[in-house]
Specification:
Elements lengths: L1 E4 L6 H8 L12 E5 L15 H13 L11 E7 L9 H15 L10 E9 L2 E10 L10 H16 L17 H9 L6 H13 L5 H10 L3 E6 L5 E7 L13 E2 H4 L5 H5 L16 H18 L5 H21 L2 H17 L12 H13 L6 H27 L3 H34 L3 H14 L4 H6 L3 H13 L4 H9 L10 H12 L12 E2 L2 E2 L17
Antiparallel strand pairs: 1-3, 2-4, 3-5, 4-5, 6-7, 7-8, 9-10
């Protein structure tokens, strides 16, 4: 159940006209009153003798009773309450109960003092109601509406629990501000999938990824074509910034500006400054290749994954925020086949990067440097070393994001945990695309091994892990794992102790693909091979340049 409190208005009759009208985006069917402050409120939807003006005059009466100078200009309070699409349809009596509970929870009615505002709840669709209130009590005082949105959310969570409705994730006030209805309508009129607020939020995050100074940050924004206005104090100190999209203008032709804090809480200028914890550093050297930048990022993320939850919360929060920068940098430099999935993962993970825990950004310098290196190394190809390194980084990101999900879950951060899980699914899809060709090459090598070699490798597995050996050697991923073990044996490494070593890293009982997890661990150890040119399958354009990448643990095998 989702309550949404809109900006306060000045015309009761205008809002009622919309609620009882045909609708703009969605069709309004059978608009009628389901609850009100008193039993004598007229219902223009069901009573032919009642008019919208009658209801508006009744609601506005306490406001108009005040001397005109004391009448608030914006006295109309509006809250919509909507059930989840999967919930059952509530009856009018149930919606009446919901309306009374919401106005009590938010302070429109105060049972302790007996004071109340005049209000009415209108239902014009099966799944939601609108509550309209005028913000002057019968005694001429104003209601106490402090944190009315948070209190409405809390009451909806209680209703969901009591009535067996879908339990939505509770927020903590750190989510990015959602686009308004007017912004969405405007985007629809211009045939845009995303509103300017959402586009600017992504542009600012991309510009921030790995940036080491304000100058670099603002230069990157300008390179993206974003209009930037910097606000300075009389002393010359930078107080904040505003951004606008080219072509996004008001009715009088002025740019539509958004401050950083209106895009997301952590994009305000003071919060951005906290990330610049080190002196500006030069860009990575030209020798830093896309593959090299991704391998370095995978190593750094691997270390961060193992330390997440072991240190203090401020350090963990910094790593969670820095991982968002790595995703933003990767989203702009990924090859076309995986770009959409990585971008979707970055947008989902954005919510998981923020909580009330203050981040100690000095602990995430290494991770932010990897985001910077990815940005300056430029776009990566989807094949060869670039493809293998990209798959390696994606698999490590899956592990990190799953660890982030567990970290948030342990602390009761429901929205952040859900966002991390969604990001992991997008990253798994990206990994499937990036690693598929490389794994196919390795599987082909494994299937080409002589039967006696495959039998010997299977016997090594039975010696190392007798309890699960039969499962491993019958999985579809066994040929690729066999190729990796054969490569290790030809390099002088005994497969039995090698398997015992990588199996000891962590339990395997929750893995969907045991062979895939083991192959991933061998690759992390540096044991998995890269195919030679003659071993790579030929394409219509000649030999493939694919290199080998592993199946990610907790990744493509969907291990949780």
């Amino acid at each position: 159940m989702i309550p949404k409190i809109a900006r306060r208005g000045s015309r009761t009759i205008g809002l009622l006209t919309y609620l009882y009208g045909p609708g703009i985006r969605d069709e309004h069917t059978d608009p009628h009153l389901v609850a009100s402050f008193g039993s004598d409120a007229p219902d223009p939807g069901r009573d032919p003798a009642a008019t919208l003006k009658d209801l508006a005059v009744l609601l506005d009466q306490p406001v108009r009773a005040l001397p005109e100078p004391n009448q608030p200009k914006r006295h109309v309070w509006h809250c919509s309450v909507r059930t989840d699409p999967g919930d059952r349809q509530l009856s009018d009596d149930e919606w009446e109960t919901v309306a009374h509970r919401i106005v009590t929870a938010t302070g429109i009615e105060d049972p302790n003092t007996g004071r109340y505002c005049r209000w009415a709840a209108v239902r014009h669709a099966p799944d939601h109601i609108h509550i309209v209130a005028t913000l002057i009590c019968e005694d001429g005082r104003r209601p106490r509406l402090h944190q009315d949105a948070a209190r409405a959310q809390a009451e909806c969570r209680r209703i969901e629990t009591e009535w067996g409705l879908r339990l939505l994730n509770a927020g903590d006030g750190t989510a990015a501000q959602r686009p308004t209805s007017a912004e969405r309508h405007k985007a629809d009129r211009h045939h845009h999938d995303r509103t300017p607020r959402e586009q600017l939020r992504e542009a600012v995050r991309t510009a921030l990824a790995g940036a080491t100074s304000g100058e670099e940050f603002f230069d990157r924004l300008a390179d993206q074509g974003v209009h930037v206005y910097q606000r300075h104090a009389p002393s010359g100190d930078l107080l904040g910034y505003n951004v606008a999209l080219p072509g996004d203008r008001t009715a009088d032709g002025s740019p539509v500006w958004f401050s950083g804090s209106k895009l997301a809480p952590d994009l305000s200028w003071p919060r951005i400054q906290q990330r610049f914890t080190t002196p500006p550093s030069p860009p990575p050297t030209p020798q830093t290749t896309p593959a090299g930048a991704r391998r370095a990022a995978a190593d750094t993320l691997w270390d961060a994954t193992h330390h997440l939850g072991e240190g203090d919360s401020a350090s963990d929060a910094a790593h969670l925020a820095a991982a968002s920068e790595v995703l933003d940098a990767l989203a702009t430099t990924s090859p076309r086949p995986t770009r959409a999935h990585v971008r979707a993962a970055a947008r989902s993970y954005d919510r998981a990067a923020r909580s009330h825990i203050r981040a100690a950004h000095q602990h995430s310098r290494a991770l932010r440097r990897t985001a910077r290196a990815i940005t300056f190394a430029g776009p990566a190809l989807g094949r060869g070393e670039d493809g293998a390194a990209a798959a390696m980084l994606l698999s490590t990101l899956v592990l990190f994001v799953i660890a982030a999900h567990r970290w948030h879950t342990a602390r009761g951060h429901q929205q952040q945990a859900a966002a991390a899980r969604q990001a992991a699914e997008h990253l798994c899809q990206a990994y499937d695309i990036a690693a598929g060709p490389h794994l196919a090459v390795l599987a082909t090598q494994g299937r080409a091994l002589p039967p006696h070699t495959l039998d010997s490798l299977a016997e090594s597995v039975r010696t190392a892990v007798p309890a699960i050996a039969d499962t491993i050697v019958t999985e579809p991923g066994w040929p690729a794992l066999a190729a990796a073990l054969d490569h290790a044996a030809r390099q002088g490494t005994d497969p039995v102790p090698l398997l015992q070593e990588v199996i000891g890293h962590r339990e395997l009982t929750t893995a969907d693909s045991l062979s895939g997890v083991l192959l991933w661990r061998l690759h992390r150890r540096g044991t998995a091979p890269a195919p030679t040119q003659r071993d790579r399958p030929r394409t219509a354009d000649g030999p493939s340049t694919a290199a080998v990448a592993p199946v990610p643990e907790n990744g493509t095998d969907r291990r949780r």
